Amino acid sequence: MTQDIQGIIDETVEMNMKLYSPQAVMLERGEGCYAYDTQGGKCLDFAAGIAVASLGHAHPKLVKTISDQAAKIMACQGSYVTDAKHEATKLLVDNGCFDEVYFSNSGTESVELALKLARKWSYDNKGPECNELITFHNSFHGRTYGSASVTEKRNSQPFFNPYLPGVHFAHFNDLASVEALVSKEKTAGILIEPVQGEGGLTPAEDGFLQGLRALCDRHDIPLIFDEIQCGAGRMGTLYAYQSFKGENGQPIEPDVVCLAKGIGSGFPVGAVLAKKKFASAMVPGTHGTTYGGNPLACAVVACVINELQSQGFLANVQAMSSKLMDGLSALQSSSNKINRITGKGLMVGFSTAVPIKDMIGALRKNGLMTTQAGSDLVRLTPPLIAGEDEIKEALSIIETTLKQDF
């Protein structure tokens, strides 16, 4: 690395709040499933900004969409309808089980609205005492105050007290632990990630989600899915809930869903969708945003959803998920160095005996970008455009890295 580039990294780090451990290289550009640094280094990007770049880098249709929309109009008040907003809304509503949509700017903002919606609906229909929320151990829903309050990390960050009151944590995939906390008179909502992200890439069991659905129906409680990381095609279905099936073979539907990350493929945008029964609680004055639903963001969402819905796209995600899982299982058998494999769709993790930071650093040096999930998992969240060649390359790099001495 030249002194000039190291100097730029050092100066940038010095002037930014110290919330991240800086990477050793400076990124310059991306193309498809690859990222390139300023020294000419090339990495297969199986981080994708933590499940963000669903269409990879510099996708031609997305680049054109952004350029064309920016030349027309980028910003206006949320009270205006635009062609982009209409198209994005129709695509999200028509391809899921929801009736209404609200556009936000990020995942944590989507969760904030979902929490407000649950409490507002419960207040209107059950009274002011119905304001408690149930979420899960090892959850992650964001870093603003509401979303941080329903994230278990609140218990290890007392310096942000007081968090929202009335939040209870149940055990993931343990219906009895939820039943012990639920109350028809007090529980305003149940919030869950169908596949836990930061908590360890743990998929919910179909029977568990079906039990939650029945529990919410019995007590008239909104069931909220946080699909910020696992949604937008990453499970091989447009919405993550569509990949979880009940005993009747039909998808287990939530009442409210939170989206972000992949629906923008790198552009900052989020959304909340809800069934009319619950969406009707939100009226003028109860929520809003300056940038949410702006024409540029909505044009991006429409472009991304159209690509995800294109012929063969989601089937490829499912096929590549199987190849990645099978390849990791083969490496586990042949190397005896992989302890655990977990995940669903193209949201996959594995652990080894090597300290996680060392493993991720070695993978990057060998040409594969990954991230950490939980305490010891290497997280693989490649662009959804990844094909057989990219999966094979990733597995080859992992195999090479496992053979190294640490």
What is the number of helical segments per DSSP (H or I, 4+ residues)?
13
Relative strand content: 15-25%
Helix content: 25-40%
In the sheet with the most strands, the strands line up as 4-10-9-8-7-5-6
Which CATH top level class of the largest domain fits? Alpha Beta
Q: How is the CATH topology of the largest domain named? A: Aspartate Aminotransferase, domain 2
Q: What would CATH call the architecture of the largest domain?
A: 3-Layer(aba) Sandwich
Q: Could you say which structural class the secondary elements and strand pairing correspond to?
A: alpha/beta
- Mean pLDDT rating: 97
Radius of gyration: 21 Å
CATH superfamily of the largest domain: Type I PLP-dependent aspartate aminotransferase-like (Major domain)
User: How many distinct beta strands?
Assistant: 15
N→C terminal distance: 23 Å
Low-confidence stretches: none
Sketch the topology as an H/E string, one letter per element.
Answer: HEEEHHHEHEHEHEHEEEHHHEEHEEEH
- Shape by Cα distribution: globular
**Major sheet description:** 7 strands, mixed
Tell me the count of domains: 2
Give a written overview of the molecule.
- The protein is an alpha/beta fold and about 400 residues long.
- The protein folds into two domains: about 5-60 and about 310-400, Aspartate Aminotransferase, domain 1 (Alpha-Beta Complex); about 70-310, Type I PLP-dependent aspartate aminotransferase-like (Major domain) (Aspartate Aminotransferase, domain 2).
- The protein is built from 13 helices and 15 strands.
- It has helices spanning about 5-15, 50, 60-70, 85-95, 105-125, 145-150, 175-180, 205-220, 275-280, 295-310, 315-335, 355-365, 390-400; strands at about 25-30, 35, 40-45, 100-105, 130-135, 165-170, 185-190, 225, 255-260, 270-275, 340-345, 345-350, 370, 370-375, 375-380.
- Strands 4-10-9-8-7-5-6 form a seven-stranded mixed sheet, sandwiched between helices. Strands 1-2-3-13 form a four-stranded mixed sheet.
- Helix 3 (about 60-70) packs antiparallel against helix 10 (about 295-310) and helix 4 (about 85-95) packs parallel to helix 10 (about 295-310).
- The longest helix is centred in the C-terminal third of the chain and has 23 residues, at about 315-335.
- It is globular.
- The two termini are about 25 Å apart.
